[in-house]
Every structure is written in C-alpha cells, then in structure tokens.
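Hi L., both proteins are below.
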Amino acid sequence: MSNKFRKVLAAILAGTMVLGSGVVANAAEGSGEGSGSLDVVEASDVFNVILPTDSGDQFDYILDPTGIIAETDAAKYASASFVDGQTMYFRNKPASGSDIATYSNVSDPIKAYNKSTMDVEIKVQAKLATPSGIDIVTTAPTGGGPANTATPSIYLALKDASGETAITTTGIVATSSITDASALYEVVYATDSKTYKKQLNATGSNATTEDELDAVFQSYEFNLTGSCNDDGKWVGLTEEPPTVSLVWTIEKPDNAATSSPITFTNTGDITLTGLTAAKNFDHKMTLSWGGTTSDNLDSDPNMAWDITQWSAENGGTLKFKLSSGWVSGLSGELVTVTVYLTDGSTLTATTQF
C-alpha cells in the first residue's frame, strides 16, 4: 500500500470519528425540576385582650346628702364600713381576708389588659338618664348652705389616669390607647397544624394573677366617682336618682389573629378551641382567685356542658358554663381558670367578675 493511499485512509477514518462523536453528543439529554416551599408565620399580628364584659352592681351608687348613714352607724347596710364625709357612695369589694363590705365615693375599677402584638384602643361611653327635679352638674357641687334650700344636684364622672370627665345626659366618650406586648411573643412551629405561629412566651403565658398581669402587661382602668349637694331639697324628693349607662369596647384590628385557644367571661362561660386527639381536654379544671384555688370543677354536677362540636377521640371545640352559684359567689373577684390538657400542658384565662 502506497504512502499516499495510507494518508487518504487515515484522513477518512479521522473524519468518521469526529462525525460519530458529534452524533452521540447531540443525542444526550438531561432534565429536572424543583418545587418551592414557603416558611412564614401564620399571622404577624395577634389580638389578645382581657376585658371585663359586665360590671354587675359595681356602678350602683347611694346618695347621702344629709349624712344619715354615719348618723345611724350604717344600720341600713348591716354596719358596713363607710368612708366619712362623702355624699355619694359605691360598694367596694371587701379587703383581702375580710367579708365586711366597704363603701367610698370611687367605684371599683374596670381594668383591661393588652396582651396583643399591637397597640389597641379602648373606648368608654357613659350617659346619664334625664331626671326631673335633680340638676346634672359638670363640676362637683360645693354645697355648704342651709340644708334643704337649694335645687338638688348631682355630679357623676368617669375617672381614669388622665383625670375626671363629667357624665352628662347627652353622653360622653373617653378613649385611650394601651401599649402592645409584642416583646413577650415568640414564633413557634406547631407540629399538629404544620404551621408557624406567634404565641406568648413563658413570661406572658404564666401571668395569671392581677399582680402578675400588672408586672408584664400594659393596662387601662376606669372608675366612677361623684357627689351631690348637701344643701339641696332632698327631703321629700320622690324621684329616684338617674341611672348611669356605660359601654366599653376594644375592637379587633383588621387582619389581626386571635391567639388565645381559651375564652373566659364573667358570666361563667368558658370555651376551648383547637383541641386535637393529641392535645385534648384532660377532665381537670380549676378556678383561682384571691389566693384561693377551687377543687376540680369537672366534677361539679351543676356545670353546663356543650359537646356538640367536641369528642374525646378527636377534640374540637368544648364549651362549659359555671353554675349560678359560682358566678354570684365570685362577684368582685379577679378569677383565673386553668384547664389541663392530655399532653401535660394547661390553658389559662382571667376575667373580672
């Protein structure tokens, strides 16, 4: 074979190898895909407040323009303790360790706590019924003149940290902001719902008594106070003193989640939500107030149950209602309910009776 032929053959073979390798490379193919997931907290803002819903009789008042209560040693009121020298009295809850009623010219307070991640606004509306024969005045009457000579007059005011606002027959509105508790929140991963959520840390969730709540949460409170003139023509007046009506509200901001799985009202209603098979009611519940803790409420035969949305196997929403005896017996007390769950944890809520 000649050298010339060998060179031509080698060139042909080399070209074939190049073309062959090119065909193989063009036929190779790969593919793939990736899915995305989002890790984000379920609700960035949480609305959680303690707000008494009913005042009972704490805004009832007594007018004593002539000092007859002191003169008779409070015989009409079973010798209860009255602060001397006042012309209007509200019944205050007894001092700790005592069962003797006390009366002063300032009512017991309505107190709201903000356990939310944002500031909230509380609004208090107050209005006096229109009386006949009694003047409604906007400053405390001085009196001091001859008894039973002037027109009877009454001063009733809403009192808070900013001062006093006289209540009128047309009504007044007082608003105040309560600072958030965002520093007491942490983000956790809930394995049952497979979501992230904000919840109170141990410091916030373990605060249940009034002293503990005061130590960690911001609050707002208001009272009523007032007086009447001691020189008015009260003797022989047949008309009842005017009724005072109050409404207080904290509205949930838009897009704010309600974090608490337990609600407790001062009418004795207790609601548990979000119970599961792994985290269910453990048939134990207690009440605590003024240093006293009740026995297990679950055995109370007068407790009303609503299990229409709950089962012992799967959980759900469980509702209770305290008996009327409990509700009346707890009048004037700041009460905490503690509910025990099957995973060893507890739920607590506090309300003012």
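That was the first. Here is the second:
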Amino acid sequence: MKETRIIMGMPIEIEIIGEDTKKVFEDSFAYLVGIDERFSPYKETSEVSAINRGKRELAAASPLMQEVLAIAEQTRLTTKGYFDIRRPDGKLDPSGVVKGWAIKNVAELILRAGQENYFINVGGDIAMRGKDSERKEWSVGIRNPFNIKEIVKVVYPHGKGVATSGSYIRGAHIYNPHTPSESLDEIVSITVIGPDVLAADLMATASFAMGRSGIAFIESLEGFDGYAIDASGTATLTSGFAAYTEC
C-alpha cells in the first residue's frame, strides 16, 4: 500500500509492503504532523517560533528540541561550519536536521510495528528497507536538474539512506554560512548515500553549501558516497558510487 499526504509543506510518500498497515500509516503521518507543529519556523505556535521570539529559553526547550539542537551542533562542528541551523539574522531554522531525523524516526516506527518492507520519500530524502511489491531491491532515480522529468541515474541503496540537495526545485534555499550573501551556483544538485537518511541528509546539505568542493568532502567521509551535477551539466561521482548502480 502506498499513501501520499502533504505535511511540512511537501508531499510525503510512504509505501509499505505488508498486511494490516492501516494503523502504522496513521501513526506515521500523525507523528510527522506533530513534528511539523513543534519544529516549523513558519508556524507561530511552534516551539521554534517561541524560541525565536524570545518567549522560551533554549535551556527550557523540550527534550526533542534539545536532541535536534545537539545533532545540529555536532554536524556544524563536523562540517567546519558549512552546516548551521542559525539563519544570517540569528534565528533558528532546524529544518535541515528535522526532515531527515523525522524520516529516520518514522522508519523505526514502521519497523517496530512489524513491517520490514517499506519506502519513505520526503522531498527527495529517502529511507527504505527490504523489498518492493515485486520482491525486488528498492531503487531511486536521480533527476536531471535541468529537466526533472528525466532520470539520469538509477541507484540501488541496499537499505542505506539517500538525500538530494539542490536549487532546481525549491530555488536558493541553502547558503554557505561562511559567505551567506554569495549565491551558490556552481553546483545544481548533489545526491548522497549514507548509513541512514539523517546522516545522508545532513551531509548532502553541508556538501551543497561547499559548492564545487562538496563532492570531495563526501569522498573523504567513511560510509558515504555522492553524485554531484554542476551548472554545466557535468556529473562528478565519488569512487564508491558505482557500487550502487547495480542491483
């Protein structure tokens, strides 16, 4: 069974291959709605908005917020500041952590419910496990950023997480925290395969912010591979990426 709902301002697609899936679908989508209510910087009633307005101190933030902030800080240090949830105006926008973190948590929720074959796609960030409806390996298509109807590469992540960062759908929503006023136009998309969807998402965002050097950063990380497309349409891939192009 496959179901898509609009949450977090984007279509969220969950497919579960199994029986008695109704409750786990409802639990999964309800969890995501709750996460959006807490973490959206665009909702006046969210905890993030309360913190940004000075109505709540960080020290008094909820355990979930503290968890997300800790992940963000560790990622900021790992990426030498290329990943930073603080906007140039100093306000918090944890969206770069929350999406991958929420997908990872939903995947664990589905697994705890006894469902071992699933595929979750939230805005190009993907978690999967097991086999599809034809008992085949799940596959992911990398879109041509210059023609999104075209798939330029099909990969078989074998249960690992996949995330794509780019400017070709949502526009310039990622910036280099070191030079926030400069546009990122060298790279138009980068797809990262990592140990899980959260790790892949964090590193995809950071590597995109690095521009042309981002793919080299992914190459340097153990357990990660990537596929970057630059403004001229040239693709650069890490040395281990080819392993994911075969079923």
